[in-house]
Structures are given as structure tokens and as C-alpha cells.
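Notes continue from the previous slide.

Worked example: a multi-chain complex. Inputs as given:
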Amino acid sequence: MRILVVEDESRVASFISKGLEGAGYVTEVAGDGSTALDSFRERGADLVLLDVGLPDIDGFSVLKEVRKIDQDTPVIMLTARGDVASRVQGLDLGADDYLPKPFDFDELVARIRAQLRHSGQSQAAVLQAGDLILDLKTRRAERGGRATDLTSREFALLEFLMRHEGQVLSRSQILGSVWGYSFDPQSNVVDVYVGYLRGKLDRAGENTIIETVRGGGYRLRVPA
Ligand code: CA
């Protein structure tokens, strides 16, 4: 699950991001509204954590734009404590929840879990592409009835590929979504992990299910 953290105070952003990574989420931090919208347009998110006070466009305007792009992604607004007007405005504009600052980190994680439970993506128990099945609860992959254990990064990578089945995904899209914003874009970690997944999922004598697209990136081929 990937969370877009929109927060301009870098100390707060890094506190949230580190904590959420520790809780098993992949995060991307955007320090202003336009960066957040670029990221959301390009890569989407499973949930958006959105500060109201941002240096360029305010959180409400970001929320409006997010809702034009996608109506279902849960958005939790971070507001100043006691600021009832902001809270009401946020909920009117389609925020799913709000959390007054300063907040307790455990409460933030609990609110995030609750939102992800309600959203459609977390309800699907398995993803399927041809004879390839990914169980989102046990985090195991199965191909043609043969089950394979995955590490957490392998799981996140395969989930991302399966949710974009048939689409060409660039290395930087994959890196941003699976490893998060802070990773070195020159890293070959994507290629390494694609190799691990191929080793676990491909069958001898058949084409690989994760195609390399020349000059583009990777694409999950729908297995027969
Ligand atoms: Ca702020």
C-alpha cells in the first residue's frame, strides 16, 4: 500500500514517512501542492495524507484536484486543532477523514487502516492474471497451483505490476511506487527484483511473464 504524504514541514513529513514505512507502508513525500498533484497524476496512491497549510496551493485546492482525477482514493486531511471551519470545508470537498495536529502517531495509523479497509482495493483478497494469483492477505503468489513465498519488496513489486497488468511501467514509476520517493533513481534495484520474481514465477521453456520493454521499462504479460 502506497501513501502520498503532502506536508511542507520537512521534520513532520519525515517523522510521518519513517513511521509509516516502519508500519509496512510505502510512502512518497510531497512538500507542496503542485508536486503532490504531479505525483498523484503520474503514479496515483492508495491513500493521501494532506496538510491544509501548504506553501503554494492550499490543501483544499489540492483535494479538489485530487477528486477530479479520482473519487475513490481515501484522503485524510491534517488540520490545526480546533479549526472547525477547515474540518467542515475538507469534509464538504470530499475528504474522508481529518486529524487535528499535533496528533498521536498510533491514532494516525489507526485512521489510515480504517480508511484502507473501507476502500475498494483493500477489500479484494486476491489479484489474478491468467494462471497467476497473488493473495493479498497471505502475501503469497501462486502460479498454475504452485505456491511461492515472496519477500515484502517482491510482493509490493508484483502487486504493482498486477494492478497495471498489460501496461508498460517505467523504472522510475516502479521505483517511486514500490520503493518510495527517496530511492536513488540510478539504482538498478528494480531490475534486480524483476529478476527475483522471474526466478520464482517463470516456467522453464516459456516466455517470462515480466517482459522487458526496450527503452520503456517492464510490463506484466498476461500468462496463459
Ligand atoms: Ca503546513
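Summary box: The chain has two domains: 2-122, 126-220. The mean pLDDT is 88.
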